[in-house]
Specification:
This protein is of the alpha/beta class and about 160 residues long. It has one domain: SPOUT methyltransferase, trefoil knot domain (Alpha/beta knot), CATH 3.40.1280.10. The chain is built from six helices and six strands; from the N terminus they run βαβαβαββαβαα. It has a six-stranded parallel β-sheet, sandwiched between helices. The longest helix has 15 residues. The chain starts with a strand and ends with a helix.
């Protein structure tokens, strides 16, 4: 399917909800430290319900370590700092969809290194951001939509 990468997530219930989404869509979850909670946090497991036990997230000690292992793969960087909307991206099975922390997004240096891979969700000028679990759902299911024939055997 796809890989969902949360870089320095801060809010356990958001990560739990995203973990639940990953199980339901057959995605792999990657968590990049430091995180704002412990992996055994009750709030994380509560939001993920019984799905959290079906998930086997890959935990990376840093963004540098993640990029060292995956920087040559197909990456998509979700940010509010680009004009390229997510449905213009050409998603493929196995892509890595990166989302930054709830408080600061992805690091500016990473966005500058991969400007052609930056995508955004259109919003009105009054809005500045969406909840990360909603953003992950929107972008991840666009990847499913674009590759439904490949994924439908998994769903």
């Amino acid at each position: 399917m796809v890989n969902i990468v949360l870089v320095e997530p801060k809010i356990a219930p958001n990560t739990g909800t995203i973990g639940r989404l990953c199980v339901n869509m057959g995605a792999t979850l990657h968590l990049v430290e430091p995180m704002g909670f412990e992996i055994d946090d009750k709030k994380l497991k509560r939001a993920g319900l019984d799905y959290w036990y079906k998930l086997n997230p890959t935990i990376w000690p840093s963004l540098e370590e993640f990029m060292k292992s995956n920087g040559d793969k197909r990456l998509w960087l979700a940010t509010t700092r680009t004009d390229r909307v997510y449905f213009e991206a050409d998603f493929k099975p196995g892509d890595y969809l990166l989302f930054g922390s709830e408080t600061s997004g992805l690091p500016e240096a990473l966005l500058k290194e991969y400007p052609q891979k930056c995508i955004t969700i259109p919003m009105t000028p009054e809005g500045r951001s969406l909840n990360i679990s909603i953003s992950v759902g929107i972008v991840a299911y666009e990847a499913v939509r674009q590759n439904y024939e490949t994924f439908k055997g998994l769903l």
